[in-house]
Structures are given as structure tokens and as C-alpha cells.
Design a protein that fits this description.
One of its GO terms (biological process) is 4-aminobenzoate biosynthetic process. The chain is α+β, with helices and mostly antiparallel strands. It is 23% helix and 27% strand. A hairpin with a 5-residue loop joins β3 and β4.
Length: 313
């Protein structure tokens, strides 16, 4: 089976589902499954980048699998399924002749039927979708970012370190409202009023060359791209810290950007109607983007990352 033509569909047709390669449409779960009844399904999105030397490779695979294991532990799923993912990605790439950028979605779901207290039987599903860069710094004006009235729940309500599908229901509503209000995206706050994160991405600001992002304790998902930025910024001459971030700090920042596996990087030109002074993308954002793609495509060695997964998180 060969790679898709340039004008073909945006998905490759095979899925690895419950131990076998099947057509995507056959990668299903029972309507009465715990995944569908109670939203017990964790996932990872992993970028597949074409390498400068040829071929494709999954980007930052190890931290993605570490987070998948942690999400499974938190949600009562079998964390051992993560061990099979590297070979499955290779199998899907080879079977479909994939030789361009893609987005690998790995899902571990409670496939069995049962009540809310039933132990989960884990089903692993892996698919790959064509995925070019969504935003290219320099060829657009940057995002308009709103401050949502919706909040991120505390860890006493739901574990923010679990990348579970149900955790996206509230942020989805927040993003829909932001779009209705004329924004490209938004950030949510905690009950204490500090900035947490965007619906599907981490928020960063730049203050005088210093790179700042909300703390994990502000109900932030331990993002893989977030960890990469924190590890890489010092090598580019910029201190990188986690701190309490307020709306006032965002609107006063020199630069603001969102980042995440799906989005990659989204430079921001305006926060809550306030135009940022540093431009979009600003020099620090641009330097990070350049370093990211140099590493992702194999031109330079990748930065090691620490997701900060400790204790019950």
C-alpha cells in the first residue's frame, strides 16, 4: 500500500485496533462500553515528522509514552499497552508507505460494557492522519486570544495530569464561546483566578527575554511541548520558569504564544483586546520555533524533557 497522493484524503486508511490492522471504519467500540458510557479513554497525539535524511520519525516519543502510562494509571487502564506503541507506529508507517508529516493518535479505552464501578478492559487503538503545520510564524498576524469565563477544575475534581477525553468537554465549550466572541482561541483560569491553559495547548509569555508558563499546580496538563520549551529556552539564552500567571501579566507581556503537539506553535498578537508590544511572532518565539523544527526534522540533537510527573499527578 502506498502513501496517499497530495490531493488525496487527509487520513491513511488503516488503524491498529485491539491487536490487528483493520480499516479505520472497523476500529470501533461497543455502544455500551465504559469508554462511551463514562468517558474513560486516554490518548496521546504524537507528531510524525519527515526527516532531513529521509524517512519519518515520531517526535518526542518517550515522554509521550511516559504520559500515556501515567494517564492509564490515573484512569484505571492498563499502562502496559504503551510498550507496544513504537512497533505499532512502525507497522502503520510501513504498511501504508507513509513518507510525510503525520499525526499519530494513540488511544487506550475501556472497551468492555459495565457499570460505573466495573474494572476496565483496555483496548489500544492507533491511527495516523496527514498533518502539515497549522500555523507558520511570519505568514500571518498572530492569534487573538480571549480570557474565558470557563474554569479548569482542580485536581480534587478531576486529575489534570490525565489526558482523558472527558477532560476536554469543558475546554471545548470555552473554545466555542471564544470563537463566537471573535477570538481565535482562549485561556481558562483556575477558581483562584490565575491563568491555567488553553483548550488544547499550553500558554507561555515572554517578559524581558524571560520565558514564563503557568505551574502544573494551576491544573495544567503536563504538556510534552511545554516541557520541551522549558528545557530548550535556556540553551537559547532565555531563563524559563513556571510561575503564577495573571491576566494582567499576559496583557503586559512582550510576547505570548501557545504550544502543543497538534498546534505546534501559535504566536499571539492580542490578549483580551490588548495588542502585545513584542510583535507576532516575537524574536523569542521565533527562535524557539526554529530550534523546534531543526530538532524535529533531525538536523540537530533533540532536547531531553521532564514532564514533572510526580506522586498522584
Amino acid at each position: 500500500m502506498t502513501g496517499l497522493p497530495a490531493d488525496g484524503p487527509v487520513v491513511w486508511p488503516l488503524a491498529h485496533h485491539r491487536g490487528a490492522l483493520v480499516p479505520r471504519d472497523e476500529a470501533t467500540l461497543p455502544v455500551g462500553s465504559i469508554a462511551l458510557r463514562y468517558g474513560i479513554s486516554v490518548f496521546e497525539g504524537i507528531r510524525l515528522y519527515r526527516q532531513d535524511r529521509g524517512g519519518v520519525a515520531p517526535w518526542l516519543l518517550r515522554p509521550h509514552l511516559d504520559r500515556l502510562r501515567n494517564s492509564c494509571r490515573l484512569m484505571g487502564l492498563d499502562e502496559g499497552c504503551a510498550a507496544d506503541v513504537p512497533a505499532i507506529i512502525d507497522e502503520l508507517v510501513a504498511a501504508q508507505g507513509i513518507d510525510e508529516d503525520g499525526y499519530v493518535r494513540v488511544a487506550a479505552s475501556a472497551a468492555n460494557s459495565g457499570g460505573i464501578d466495573e474494572a476496565a478492559v483496555t483496548a489500544l487503538t492507533v491511527t495516523i492522519t496527514r498533518a502539515g503545520r497549522k500555523r507558520r510564524p511570519g505568514d500571518h498576524e498572530g492569534m487573538r486570544l480571549g480570557i474565558s469565563a470557563w474554569q479548569r477544575p482542580s485536581d480534587a475534581v478531576f486529575p489534570s495530569a490525565a489526558k482523558n477525553i472527558s477532560a476536554y468537554a469543558g475546554p471545548r465549550l470555552a473554545l466555542a464561546q471564544a470563537r463566537r466572541d471573535g477570538y481565535d482561541s482562549c485561556v481558562l483560569r483556575t477558581a483562584d483566578g490565575v491563568i491555567s491553559e488553553a483548550p488544547t495547548a499550553t500558554a507561555f509569555l515572554v517578559e524581558g527575554g524571560r520565558v514564563v508558563t503557568p505551574r502544573l499546580s494551576d491544573h495544567v496538563l503536563p504538556g510534552v511541548t511545554r516541557a520541551w520549551v522549558l528545557a530548550t529556552a535556556p540553551s537559547l539564552g532565555h531563563e524559563a520558569v513556571e510561575d503564577a500567571v495573571t491576566e494582567e501579566r499576559l496583557t503586559a507581556a512582550d510576547e505570548v504564544f501557545l504550544c502543543g503537539t497538534g498546534l505546534e506553535f501559535g504566536p499571539v498578537r492580542e490578549v483580551a483586546g490588548v495588542r502585545l508590544s513584542g510583535g507576532s511572532p516575537g524574536p523569542v518565539t521565533k527562535a524557539l520555533v526554529d530550534a523546534y523544527f531543526a530538532q524535529a526534522r533531525g538536523a540537530t540533537a533533540p532536547t531531553g524533557v521532564d514532564l514533572g510527573l510526580t506522586g498522584g499527578r
